[in-house]
Amino acid sequence: MSFMGQLQDELAEFKKQGVYKRLNYLDSPQGARVKMEGRGEVVVLSSNNYLGLCDVPEVIQAGKEALDHWGAGTASVRFICGTFTVHRELEDALAAFVGCESSLTYASCWNANEGCARRFSANPTSSSPIS
Predict the structure, then answer these.
(1) The model's pTM
(2) Cα 87 to chain center, whole Å?
(3) Residue 56 dihedral angles phi and psi, to the nearest 5°
(4) Of 2, 125, 43, 82, nearest to 10 (Cα)?
(5) Are 87 and 94 in contact (CB under 8 A)?
(6) What's the pLDDT score for residue 111?
(7) Which of 27, 41, 74, 131 could form a disulfide with 124 if both were Cys (CB 3.0 to 4.6 A apart)?
(8) Cα gap 58→64, rounded to integer Å
């Protein structure tokens, strides 16, 4: 069997098992209810927008102001291209709020999981928050 034939067979099996993933395209801001292309209005139960802030006018305005000031992104991870001072200020404020020496923020849950995995797999010490 050819490589392409094997791939087609595997995709057919994924579809048969109900595990084949298709992208859903939104035509509205993220929220509890969204307009989904080809499906109309649907309820979203798996969003990271659990605080409902994605379409709050003040949050949108703050985002626009941040884009004007900081640009559209860091261009890479913080250890390669640097960390914005606004991120340092956030981490300092979070540490003060929680009452600890320092804090570290991540750009995504994936990054946070990567950062935590090593800590949780290490031998905890008596000063460790997980001991």
Answers:
(1) 0.57
(2) 16
(3) -75, 125
(4) 2
(5) no
(6) 78
(7) 131
(8) 10
CA distance 16 to 32: 30
The size of the chain, in residues, is: 131
Contact 130, 120 (CB under 8 A): yes
DSSP-derived letter for residue 26 is B
> Is residue 41 within 8 Å of residue 35, measured between CB atoms?
yes
The structure tokens listed for 44 are 């979203």
Integer Cα distance of 33 and 49 in angstroms: 11
d(CA 98, CA 92): 10
Determine contact, residues 19/31, Cβ cutoff 8 Å. Answer: no
- pLDDT tens-digit profile of 116-127? 776 776 565 545
Q: Which residues contact 86 (CB under 8 A, 6 or more apart)?
A: 66, 70
- Over residues 79-115, the pLDDT tens digits come to 788 888 999 999 999 999 999 999 988 877 777 777 7
The phi, psi pair for 100, rounded to 5°, reads -125, 175
Listed in sequence order, the DSSP H helices in 18-131 are 57-70, 78-81, 85-98, 109-121
pLDDT digits (tens, 9 = 90+) for 65-85: 999 999 988 777 787 888 889
